[in-house]
Amino acid sequence: MRNKNSRIPYILAALLFMASIFYSLPYYVSKPGLAKELEPIITVENGYEEEGSFMLTTVRMGRANIYTYLLAKFGKYQEIYSVDEVLGKGESEKEYNTKQMHMMEGSKSSAIEAAYKKAGIPVEYRYKGVYIMGIAPGMPAEGKLETGDMLLKADGKRLQSRDQLLNYLNSKTAGNEVTLTFSRKGKEKNVSLQLESFKDDPNKAGIGIYLVDDIDIIVKPKVKVKTDEIGGPSAGLMFALEIYNQLTEDDLTKGYKIAGTGTLSEGIVGPIGGIEQKIVAADKAGAEIFFAPNEEGAKDSNYRAALKTGKDIKTKMKIVPVDSFDEAVDYLEKLKPKKRKR
């Protein structure tokens, strides 16, 4: 009997530990992810090889349980966010992940555009449709349309842009009906929705959808970018550097391991979240140079936060501020080649 009773505390402890793992809290935890070499991920047809490497840095984020919450609470370079800070109002995790994956697609397109134009190679565009990035709760689209749907027509008329659809909807009033043709998982469908007034602006009516244009970029030589389950827009700068390096004969890496982060839009580098965690990830991966968004020298810029983190972890990485893709290329072109060990 004593032996059986003596096991009870251990059984309870095991049950509590299991519960701490599987019971989700209303929080998310982010922590340093990985720094991945981009050469295996990006392939330019007949592209040039490189001696060093460009690296994509990531942040790992997941729903918190008791165990991960406590680790983040008392650990370093881990952040805790409430559900409301991560998900939009009425947004599901599936919708959030879909949005992140689409942002990654936009990041690829911006990078391809910047790299090919820098290399003096023509770029063509093919319009695919209007992509739904989110659904407003309580509005007509809820339950009828989903994040990730591609809108193709409005009342039978082929859509040419997001603005065209918005202008068409703005021309209508509450009570009017619109029939939308959309694609979901490769299947075309139709849905008729009656416009309603917005609660925060009763003078305007709509169906409650957040939209972006979905455009394919067509280039020669062809380029493939395999990102698997990586989401978000922060890889734009590093994608562009890797693509451009494969397009041009001179190797920009000069034998160095080069990491970095930053969104890219029309060649301009924008700020991202989790810069501190990305510095930690790059340092662990042995990066020697790190490009950080400078935000035109703002006091609270990603670059300044990266410097602070670098000093704290005593990194040997050279942290370089950039405001544009051209600046990053100029820096690398002037960089002295790394001396080879003999």
From TrEMBL:
Active site positions: 234, 278
Domain Lon proteolytic residues, every copy: 229-335
Keywords, comma-separated and alphabetical: Hydrolase, Membrane, Protease, Serine protease, Transmembrane, Transmembrane helix
BP term (GO), one: proteolysis
SUPFAM superfamilies: PDZ domain-like, Ribosomal protein S5 domain 2-like
GO MF, any single term: ATP binding
Keyword hit for Transmembrane helix: yes
Xref: PROSITE patterns: LON_PROTEOLYTIC, PDZ
EC number of the protein: 3.4.21.53
Family matches, as Pfam families: Lon_C, PDZ_2
Record-annotated membrane-spanning stretches: 7-29
Enzyme class, spelled out: hydrolase
Gene3D superfamilies, alphabetized: 2.30.42.10, 3.30.230.10
Domain PDZ, chain residue ranges per copy: 100-186
Protein name: endopeptidase La
Organism: Neobacillus notoginsengisoli
Lineage: Bacteria, Bacillati, Bacillota, Bacilli, Bacillales
